[in-house]
Amino acid sequence: MSAASAPITRYTRRIAAKLEQAAQTEQSHLTLSGLVQMMGPTAHRLLLLVVSLFNMVPGPPGYGGTIAFTTMLIAVAMLMGRPIRLPPIIGKRKLPLDVLVKASRQVVKVAAILARFSKPRMRWLTSALASIPYGVLVIAVSCVMALPIPFINAIPNVGLCVIAFSMLNRDGVGVIVGLVLTALGLAVDAAIILGALHLGMAAMNAMG
């Protein structure tokens, strides 16, 4: 299979094309609910890739937490086999279209390069049955990434992005790589959380 015909290449081009189409209208921002409708309320795996990619784009305060909760809700909908419906407090959050379009163009280029190395293999790790452990993992990691601690979502999100990419490209080996990156990220997060707790307790003891 050539890189141009790989599933992930088609998916990323679809993402970019839809965002380009939205950018041609007069709107300058896209809500998260609008994003869900654009990509398809039942396109759970595709949207998990989209939000994990968008989580790499710098945003205003609270942006990372909003994306983490969005990721969690998408995974819950996937596990329940239901269309994705975001509550207004999250669904109405706006994303700058110009930034998303630029990011999607880069994603298409990167996907084309990665597709040269990623290919369908060990498909049982990307089957429909794999959606259950996949969804549970995404929910667990999203809970950690939602914590209001700077940089806590960086490495785990890379792992989720690799898993989402590999799921769409039916690449079980890529899923394993993503799992390793996610585990590494969670280990780093645990160290950060423990360090923050230690500093907090030390500060309280000093004040006392």
From TrEMBL:
It comes from the Bacteria. Keywords: Membrane, Transmembrane, Transmembrane helix. InterPro entries: ExoD. Pfam families: ExoD (PF06055). The chain crosses the membrane at residues 63-84, 124-152, 172-197. This is Exopolysaccharide biosynthesis protein.
